[in-house]
Amino acid sequence: MLKYQQTATEIEAYIEQHALQQGDKLPVLEQLIRQFQVSKTTMTKALELLERKGIIFQVRGSGIFVRKTNRKGYIKLFSTQGFKQNLVDHDIASNVLTFELIPCPDEIAQNVGSSPGEMVYYIKRIRYIDGNILCLEESYYRQAIVPYLNREIIEQSIFEYLETALGLNIGFSDMYMHVGKLTASIAGHLKLETGDPGLTIETVFHLTNGRPFDYSVITYHYEHSQFVVQANGLYL
Amino acid sequence: MLKYQQTATEIEAYIEQHALQQGDKLPVLEQLIRQFQVSKTTMTKALELLERKGIIFQVRGSGIFVRKTNRKGYIKLFSTQGFKQNLVDHDIASNVLTFELIPCPDEIAQNVGSSPGEMVYYIKRIRYIDGNILCLEESYYRQAIVPYLNREIIEQSIFEYLETALGLNIGFSDMYMHVGKLTASIAGHLKLETGDPGLTIETVFHLTNGRPFDYSVITYHYEHSQFVVQANGLYL
Fold first, then answer.
1. Superfamily of domain A75-228
2. CA-CA distance, B63 to B18, in Å (whole number)?
C-alpha cells in the first residue's frame, strides 16, 4: 500500500471514529497535513482518492466535507474488490458446490480472453450474507495466470489470496448487468421460485497490465440484496 | 469545459475515428502532447480522466491502451449525466404523464434534503429507447434550486437545461438499487405483468457544493434494459 493510500485509510478511520455525518466538515488542508504528518502532495493524493471513492467531496474555497449514506444494509457496488472487502460489516460465508480444473468452454473463452480449451478453474459457490442466501456465483480463473487454487482458498477470499499469496495486481473490470426471470436451476440454488426476479452481473476482471484472468457470473437473491453506488462527477 | 476535459474529449473522438479496439495501444505521451498541442500537465490530467471513465488503461513502463467493451446495446451505468448524454447512440424520447409544482411529500423530503412542505417540481415520465419502453421515472426537483421548469424542457434533457441555462454545477450522486416484483401500477405503465421483474434505481443528485437538488426513482423495463459499468481499480 502506497503512502497516500495509507493516509486515505487513516482519514476514513478518523471519519468513522468521530462518527462524522453527511455534510460534516473536515479540518482544512494545512491542519490535515499536520495532523497526519504527511507532505502536501501525499495529502492531496489521499483526498483525491477519497473523493473518487465517494467518501468526501471538496468544495473550492469552502472546504472538505464528508459523504455518508444514512441507509443501512446496502452492498457497495464496485467490482474490483471481492465480497469480503466490500462487506466487512457483514458475515459472509460460502458453500462450494463445484471446484474443478477444466478445458475452457467455448462460450466462456471469449469472455475471459483465453483460447478455447485453455485450462481454467471452474468454481460454483453459494454466497451467504448474515446467514441468508446472497447469490449464486460461477467463476472461471485462467490457470495460465492463477496456477493454483484449492478448496481451503476458495472457501475464503480468492481475491485476497491472488493479491497477497500470488502477488497479482488486480486492475480494472467490465461489468454487465441485467434483470430477468430465474431459471428453474438457478431458482433452486437460491431457494426461490422459477420466474422470480433476479439480477445477474457478469464481470471480466483484468490485471493492471490489461490481461483478463477471471470471468464471473453472479445471480443475486432479490430479497437479500440491495446496492448503493456513491458516484461522483468524473464523467461531466 | 476545462482544457484537459476538452483534450480528453478529443482523444475519445480519436479512438472512435480510428476504430481502436480493446488493448490497442495509443501513441506515447510525448507524441500525444505534440499531436494534441497541449502541455504535459494538461495531457496527464486528460489521461487520468479517461482512465477514471474506463476509456483507457495505463501500464507503467509499457504504454497507454484502449478499453472498449465489444458488447452492443448496453447502457452505461453512471448517474451524474442524464440519459441523453449516456445514450447518444440511441433514440431517446419521453412521454410526460405528470408535471406539477407541489409541496414536497414527507417521505420524499428526507431523500431530497428539503424541509417538508418545501415546493418541488414533480415529474412523472415514461422514457423510450429506440421506440421501446425503457423505464418509468418519477423525479422531484427542489424549486429553491431549480426555480423554473416547463413542459418543453422536461420533454427534452432536464440536466442539459440545468447546466447550460441555469448554470448549475452538477456534482455527485448517491444511487440505491434493488430488484423486485412490479406492482400493478408500475407494470401497467411499463406494459408488463404484475409481478414481473423490475430494477429500481433511486438517485439523490447533488450540486458540486453538496446541496441535493433532485431525487429520482426509476424502474426499468427488464426486457429493454441492460447495463455496463467499466470499473477501475480505484478502490484497491
1. Chorismate lyase-like (3.40.1410.10)
2. 18
